């Protein structure tokens, strides 16, 4: 499992910068959270970081991002 967590960390590393908007990632397998991480800033101007409970306004973006991410971790 640690190997999959490292793969996910690498996949989302581009958001782990202080000058970029962030992301919150949660992977659920068989009804259990197996990966939960927050990356960088929810609000760059106010210096507010993303947390696992940060609310995002994503509309249909979720469908676009979740499929490639799940495929990347599937192997």
Can you characterise this structure?
- With 75 residues, this protein is of the alpha+beta class.
- It has one domain (2-74).
- The chain contains 2 helices and 4 strands, in the order αββββα.
- The chain has helices at residues 2-11, 61-74; strands at residues 23-29, 32-39, 41-43, 48-49.
- The protein has a two-stranded antiparallel sheet.
- The model has no long low-confidence stretch (mean pLDDT 75).
- This is Class A beta-lactamase-related serine hydrolase.
- It holds the Pfam family Beta-lactamase.
Search tags:
75 residues, alpha+beta, two-stranded antiparallel sheet, 2 helices, 4 strands
Give a quick rundown of the structure.
The protein has helices at residues 2-11, 61-74; strands at residues 23-29, 32-39, 41-43, 48-49. The chain is of the alpha+beta class and 75 residues long. A hairpin with a 4-residue loop joins strand 3 (41-43) and strand 4 (48-49).
Strand order of the largest sheet: 1-2
Structural class: alpha+beta
What's the overall geometry? globular
SSE topology string: HEEEEH
Low-pLDDT stretches: none
The largest pleated sheet is described as: 2 strands, antiparallel
- Taken together, the total number of domains comes to 1
Radius of gyration: 13 Å
Distance between the termini: 12 Å
Amount of beta strand: 25-35%
Number of helices: 2
Task: Please count the beta strands (DSSP E, at least 2 residues each).
Answer: 4
- Which whole number gives the mean pLDDT? 75
Helix coverage percent: 25-40%
Pfam families: Beta-lactamase (PF00144)
Protein name: Class A beta-lactamase-related serine hydrolase
Organism: Dyella dinghuensis
Keywords: Hydrolase
